Amino acid sequence: MLRGADMRTFPYGDGAFDLVMTAHMLEHLADLRAVLNEMARVSKPGGLLIACITRRSALGVRLHLMSRTHWMTPDRAEIQLFKSGLEITLNFSFDDGMFYRRLSLACACRKPGSDDAHMTQNENP
Question: Which residues make Cβ contacts (< 8 Å) with residue 43, sequence separation at least 6?
Answer without folding.
Answer: 15, 17, 18, 20, 49, 86, 111
